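Is nicotinamide-adenine-dinucleotide placement plausible here? Inputs below.
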Amino acid sequence: MTSLSLPDTRMLIDASRVPLDHGRTITVTSPIDGSHLAEVADATAAQVHDAISAAERAFVSWRKVSGSERARLLHRLADLIDRNSDELALLETTDNGKLLRETSTQARFAARNYRFFAGAADKLYGHTVPLDGWDTFDYTSREPVGVAVLITAWNSPMQLLANKLAPALAAGCTVVVKPSEIAPLTTLRLANLVAEAGFPDGVVNIVTGGLEAGVALTTDPRVGRISFTGSVATGQAIGRAAAGTLVPVTLELGGKSANIVFEDADLDRAVTGAVAGIFAAGGQTCIAGSRLLVHDSIADIVTERIADIARRIIIGDPRADTTQMGPVASALQQERILSMVNDAFVDGSRLLVGGGVPDNPSLPAGSYVQPTIFTEVAPESRLAQQEVFGPVLAVTRFHDEEEAIAIANGTEFGLASGVWTKDLSRAHRVARELVAGTVWVNTYRYSAAQAPFGGVKRSGYGRERGLEALDEYLRTKNVLIDLSDTVRDPFAIKA
Ligand code: NAD
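Reply from A.M.:
I modeled the complex. Tokens:
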């Protein structure tokens, strides 16, 4: 069995580890039992400035490195992640409380992402452009945007980073990464793997910290792209900050995704999909299927079957094979979830399962929450409108397809959605009408390196994964060459 190995927690700037200033550190604890794991730097604005300078210097030569060489390095990084995946998974589980079998899958998925973008690194073709004038030659080239700032959330640090770092490096950008202060350890561990893979000094820089670091990263005009995953409120703050510098931003924010079960669905699969949507990872995923919309004719049976599974979910140590739900990531997160549960009562929803902290004296002193299901949730209520980011399911009945679509689209979010039906026409019809970045049909929480992912409305903008992700880190240059050797009229535009 793999034993926990804590990484070097110092920041990485220009291939050097920055000594910790013990007056400015953030304590990292494990949500499993509240134990102390590490101290990490709370970066100052000056340190962030240094990291961006290092990335800027490294870009001067990195932009000339061939796509095939970038691909070779990305493949090596993927191999190293695979080789160290048990260690990385255990570290991430200890840091954020997610099940070990989930973080193990995410480590392999991260490696898959690096490989996918390695495959794209030497295929960043431009076009030749056929203009109207015969005596012209016009072409486009796709150039890296320069320094990319990559800021991630705590719920899936390895995977969220791979979503950004793999396309950024494939595109030829240098980067400054900032993981969440709540779960920074696998990102800091990756610093060693990046060096071992052979990336040149300064191509990947890693800073840790909170607000000061975040603000410094998102107000620096030298940056070519900010890619952020996190909450809507922080996304809005970053959007406002970036408006000052006009640095383009990719925002991967929250969700209130609807899992819609029609009367003709395969109920075994739909029930499993609903459970996967909300209780996997304790509901702490942006794509959580936190709203179950179910046809009136099958609502009682479907809800009771999900409730039956929820009541028997094994809560405990996320490192154990038998555990199905671990703790939520922090005591603060637990408090937020319980306060939203309380709001649901006030809004008149009916509690069917859970609603509190597990009554199990053998659980360690971590932040645990019971799987919770509310029924009769009004579409306009807070539970149906606001992201909980915890294991709380809101069940609402619908009577026909039109109503299901209207309720599904009736929030400020638009990240993901699930459709459960055996009717092929209905599946396509509903998929077309849903205002969401991802629609899953007869499945839920299915991610692929090749498939673009992202949100609409308050779930954000821009895409990660898939070839679309490269566009976030590239810009198009147009080069027009006049082949005519003629002298033009200087006072009229040539068109
Ligand atoms: P958060 O917004 O609190 O923090 C995210 C990151 O932003 C952290 O690294 C944090 O230090 C940094 N940050 C905080 N203030 C900042 C500022 N003013 N400027 C720059 N950076 C700043 O989010 P969180 O609590 O870590 O994550 C949970 C949220 O993330 C949920 O809403 C969830 O839905 C969302 N999320 C979205 C996706 C997606 O792909 N759409 C994936 C995972 C999580």
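Short version: The longest helix spans residues 100-121.
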